Amino acid sequence: MVEGRFDRLKDMHLTTDLRDGAEIVAPADPDWARLGRRLREMIRAYAGVDLPIVDPAGLSPLPEGRHRVLLGNAMVNGSIMALYRRQYAFLDDYYPGRDGYAVRTVHNPENCGYNALLVGASTLDGAANAVEVLEGVLKETGGRLGYTNLSRSEVHKTLLPEMTPEAFRDWVAGMYRDNLSYYPVEQGTFLGLAHHLTHDPDCARMFRDALFYYEDLVRNRYGGNWLFEHMLFIYSWAWRLFLVWDLIEESDAFTDAERLRITNILWGLANYVAGTRYFKGEAPPLEIRQNHWTFAGLSGSFCAGYFESYYGVTRFEKQIRFSRAVFDGQADSYKPNDDAGGGWWGYCWLAPYHQVIYDLKRDDFRFLENGHLRTFADYGIQVTDNLGVPVSFGDMWSYIEQGREAMAPGLRRGRDRIGHSRGRRRRNDRCGDV
Description:
Elements: E1 16-17, E2 22-25, H1 30-47, E3 53-54, E4 67-72, H2 78-85, E5 101-106, E6 116-120, H3 124-141, E7 144-145, E8 149-152, H4 156-159, H5 165-177, H6 182-198, H7 201-220, H8 234-248, H9 256-274, H10 291-311, H11 317-330, H12 347-360, H13 366-369, H14 372-382, H15 415-418
């Protein structure tokens, strides 16, 4: 690496060779265990190795000493749950759902040195489909898998964009022209996540185009200034960009040249975040926070963690320490110091949301174990009406805004019994039939 720029990629760990050593981690439940044995027989037949079947209880969170083949979902397999907490394996009883499946490789998570092969499903029917799909992969590869991302879910149709990549690029240009610079990168990041879930190549292309357009402006028009517009609000979304890139960096939708360019974009953003006021001076005191502090804490920790894990960069130790102080202080409260609501991204929801993401990535369950998560859920019910509309507390949106739900979507029952007109609501109607 030359000063300020990387000239080579990290070790990508693109190959998951089951013949080099692997273990199957399957749920102990008899029905799941039966599929685990089927999986072992199939790998023996096509790869010529007899892999042990291991109970997930007591295993290290990440692969250790060999690759892992993980069957099921986070609700039935503790090893998948460990990846789920770290946002590497989105497999639970909702996704992929019903008879859906996800056969995906997870490459060197947190630089553990080994890969995971997810044979994922929400149900046994879906798992049987996943095993069948994997059989086709093993027939073709003999157990030496490259990047693999094969999935089916009813959720996918809701994730895919309606516009073409060409139309998306025109939209991006229009957003920057109108000084709405926050939205292109935010939308591009979402499309990157959609690519991870669906393997749709257009989503990857739009993710790439959004970042490249942004970088072209930074370098060619704004003299290297990443924050060329105040409302870019980089430290609010940098953590999500790093999370998504860690998921899709190995995708066959990207060339090595594109990967390296995106890595250097992330390097620029990491250095910008490290230079914000949240990481200056002495470490912040342990106190309850407003969401700007927790945004900065998340982005500081994700940026630093990525480059420390995969590139050995230690210059962000201060950001790691400051981020820890932010969340150690917030952990003592079920809510932030700001009650403003009005939507899922209202201020009152953000700091606890950030706390849970930060903690679970570290296998820290304090927010749950100290009762704060339950209290926070109770709070959400108290300030949300039966239409799913939270009180704004005079800051975010108006009380009558619809379509944004917080903690209690089930409170919609009785919608037709409340009897109100939009724009006029009696004070005692606010809690509906809660």
